[in-house]
């Protein structure tokens, strides 16, 4: 049992000093991502991948979070964050925290990763370092394939400062007229429709007498060294690379929009050019005059400028993951078919060894099924469930939510097949899924044209829940099958994100999902559910009640224990309730991948709370919640983090798991996570994380590696698994 102390009446659990800042906590998460790029235990190409992820994460952070803070400052709002900082103070803290990280990232890439790449024959050369033959080839390539795409834009009284696209890479060029000596400024955009890295043909990849595996030159350098073609007759005095980031969060007045689809399409057109600039990345060589002109035109402060000594936009390093060099990557992992589904193929019925027809429905009738991605196959479980429902003549209706998916997915094809065969198909599409809006509009329109009933969510709420309801005629009865998961219905991310899902035909869950879909598609004031915790209806109150129940167990002399795994913990009310539980002696283990505003280890407040974060080859995305309940062991899974947006401004669903074997399986997953000493980071009371390392003579325990091994061992068991 946890360590209990008599709580002081003088302790204010809502005091700012008991909380971490949300934005700074996120930056600490991204620092852990950067560490994977710096860690020599990580294979080289994987380190380049994490370098790219760090940069990509920062792009979104600036486009959304920094942009929001800057808007609050401009609006002269002084509302304080959970830890007592004003918007301006948060911006200043972000600048102080982030600048050293960015410097470290680029220094490490230039001084360590780039030379290590070269040692494996992977050369990313600078234009000035190439030989005459290579230069001649690039000049010809420039004339044929790059020059026709470029558009130099002059800046003078008759040519206003050009509007530049979000995340665009640009050259600021200063030219001089030979007859007058007058200097002029122009901007050349580096086209993103062309590859960032221009590969040399094999015959030109000789470096120091050795044939390289891959040799490329950044396209901006090829353009920069051929600028004479863009400004004939002018003297190229200087050029400087820069990149800008804009506010890219959509603002849709849903209550005023007659057509939400049209309103979002209109906002998407503004995203690339309409938002204010929130960050300018430049190289240190840029002179003060050019720097001053850019900052003035973009209305930026000095703290909005990030000097990059080296290659800008390291996001593009992700393309190197396509190189067929398996020794420089993590070992290949192929998700396995869940054992209970092994006896039939995707989307079809076959006859098993005892002569009876088998489908995924017969499997679920016997017992609930837990699927764990990417350890277990998404296509052989979730996609199969939907595909068989689409083709089964006994299925009458399919209803599901789609937050993010790929437009060419088998799920979209299955839904179209179901609608075209006369089934009732309803899909709730979240058009406001950030940075997936355009993609969602495309395939939602395709679904609608095929006869699927497409609903674009609820006004004022994002539909983030991951649920499927299948209604099936079985003899004289109707049976409902459900999938309730933690991850998006996206086959691509299912290979990269860890998620769990429950497939069941329990009547109470079927009835709850029926009510929830009626809430999403029609008019409903549903205020209670049989089993589900639903946001924004009852989830907040139910979670707090579950924590209070553990408190009561401790007060009654029983053991209290909570384990919660999620992406982020931000909600102040839930954090304060966890502090109460810690004071009462409840042992609390939190597995929080990203933001954590809870401060562990505060005397008389959070001494019984431990927080870890796991960063590995897979993105930890599953949400699992365990409550001891006097050894009754209740476990819940679902789509919601403990954040205000998930509890108050999104439609979310969390389900209890009642099958004893599945409960034990989920407890085992949590135990493996908590024992990780390779990729787990432990949060300290000062806000910093310390990565766990094996003690002397202690074996290394990577939770993700252990789960892969255990899943593979189960898959290798060739014994027939009965239904």
What does the model show?
This protein is α+β, with helices and mostly antiparallel strands and 723 residues long. It folds into 3 domains: 44-328, Polyphosphate kinase middle domain (polyphosphate kinase like, 2-Layer Sandwich), CATH 3.30.1840; 339-521, Endonuclease Chain A (Endonuclease, Chain A, 2-Layer Sandwich), CATH 3.30.870.10; 533-716, Endonuclease, Chain A (2-Layer Sandwich), CATH 3.30.870.10. The protein is built from 17 helices and 31 strands. A hairpin with a 5-residue loop joins strand 12 and strand 13 (357-358). Helix 1 (22-38) runs antiparallel to helix 2 (44-74), helix 1 (22-38) runs parallel beside helix 3 (87-119) and helix 9 (379-391) runs parallel beside helix 10 (410-420). The longest helix is centred in the N-terminal third of the chain and has 33 residues, at 87-119.
Regarding CATH, which class of the largest domain? Alpha Beta
Uncertain stretches of 5 or more adjacent residues: 252-261, 345-356, 718-723
- Summarize the biggest pleated sheet: 10 strands, mixed
Q: Count the strands?
A: 31
CA gyration radius, whole angstroms = 28 Å
CATH level-4 homologous superfamily of the largest domain: Polyphosphate kinase middle domain
- State the helical fraction: 25-40%
């Amino acid at each position: 049992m946890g360590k209990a102390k008599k709580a002081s009446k003088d302790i204010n659990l809502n005091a700012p000093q008991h909380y971490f800042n949300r934005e700074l906590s996120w930056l600490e998460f991204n620092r852990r991502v950067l560490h994977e790029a710096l860690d020599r235990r990580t294979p080289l190409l994987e380190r380049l991948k994490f370098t790219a992820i760090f940069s990509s994460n920062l792009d979104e952070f600036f486009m959304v979070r920094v942009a929001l803070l800057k808007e609050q400052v401009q609006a002269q709002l002084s509302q304080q964050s959970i830890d007592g900082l004003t918007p301006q103070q948060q911006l200043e803290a972000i600048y102080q925290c982030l600048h050293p990280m960015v410097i470290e990232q680029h220094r490490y890439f230039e001084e360590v990763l780039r030379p290590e790449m070269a040692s494996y024959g992977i050369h990313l050369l600078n234009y000035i370092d190439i030989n005459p033959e290579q230069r001649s080839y690039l000049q010809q390539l420039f004339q044929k394939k790059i020059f026709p795409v470029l558009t130099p834009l002059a800046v003078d009284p008759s040519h206003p400062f050009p509007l530049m696209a979000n995340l665009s890479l640009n050259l600021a060029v200063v030219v001089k007229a030979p007859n007058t000596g007058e200097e002029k400024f122009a901007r050349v955009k580096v086209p993103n429709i062309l590859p960032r890295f221009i590969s040399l043909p094999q015959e030109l990849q000789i470096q120091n007498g050795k044939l390289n595996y891959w040799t490329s030159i950044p396209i901006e350098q090829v353009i920069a060294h051929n600028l004479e073609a863009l400004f004939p007759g002018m003297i190229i005095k200087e050029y400087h690379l820069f990149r800008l980031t804009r506010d890219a969060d959509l603002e849709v007045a849903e209550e005023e929009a007659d057509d939400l689809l049209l309103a979002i399409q209109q906002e998407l057109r503004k995203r690339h050019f309409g938002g204010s600039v929130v960050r300018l990345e430049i190289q240190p060589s840029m002179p003060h005059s050019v720097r001053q002109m850019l900052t003035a035109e973009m209305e930026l402060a000095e703290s909005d400028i990030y000097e990059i000594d080296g290659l800008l936009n390291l996001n593009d390093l992700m393309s190197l993951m396509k190189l067929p060099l398996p020794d420089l990557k993590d070992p290949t992992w192929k998700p396995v078919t869940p054992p209970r589904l092994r006896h039939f193929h995707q989307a079809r019925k076959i006859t098993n060894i005892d002569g009876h027809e088998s489908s995924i429905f017969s499997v679920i009738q016997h017992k609930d099924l837990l699927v764990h991605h990417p350890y277990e196959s998404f296509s052989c479980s979730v996609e199969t469930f939907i595909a068989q429902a689409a083709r089964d003549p006994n299925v009458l209706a399919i209803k599901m939510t789609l937050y993010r998916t790929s437009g060419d997915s088998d799920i979209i094809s299955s839904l179209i097949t179901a609608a075209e065969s006369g089934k009732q198909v309803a899909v709730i599409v979240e058009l406001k899924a950030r940075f997936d809006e355009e993609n969602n509009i495309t395939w939602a329109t395709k679904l609608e044209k095929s006869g699927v009933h497409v609903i674009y969510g609820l006004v004022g709420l994002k539909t983030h829940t991951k649920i499927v309801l299948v209604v099936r005629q079985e003899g004289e009865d109707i049976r409902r099958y459900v999938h309730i998961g933690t991850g998006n219905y996206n086959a691509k991310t299912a290979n990269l994100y860890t998620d769990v899902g429950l497939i069941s035909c329990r009547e109470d869950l079927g009835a709850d999902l029926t009510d929830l879909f009626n809430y999403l598609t029609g008019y409903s004031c549903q205020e209670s559910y049989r089993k589900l915790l639903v946001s924004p209806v009852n989830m907040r109150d139910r979670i707090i009640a579950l924590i209070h129940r553990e408190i009561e167990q401790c007060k009654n002399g029983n053991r209290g224990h909570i384990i919660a795994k999620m992406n982020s913990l931000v909600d102040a009310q839930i954090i304060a309730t966890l502090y109460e539980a810690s004071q009462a002696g409840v042992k609390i283990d939190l597995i929080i991948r990203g933001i954590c505003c809870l401060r562990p280890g505060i005397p008389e407040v959070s001494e019984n709370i431990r927080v870890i974060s796991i960063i590995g080859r897979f993105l930890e995305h599953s949400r699992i919640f365990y409550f001891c309940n006097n050894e009754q062991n209740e476990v819940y899974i679902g789509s919601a983090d403990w954040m205000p947006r998930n509890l108050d401004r999104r439609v979310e669903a969390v389900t209890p798991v009642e099958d004893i074997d599945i409960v034990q399986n989920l407890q085992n997953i949590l135990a493996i996570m908590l024992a990780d000493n390779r990729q787990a980071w432990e949060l300290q009371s000062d806000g910093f994380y310390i990565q766990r390392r094996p003690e002397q003579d202690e074996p290394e325990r990577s939770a993700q590696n252990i789960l892969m091994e255990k899943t593979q061992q189960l898959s290798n068991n060739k014994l027939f698994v009965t239904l």
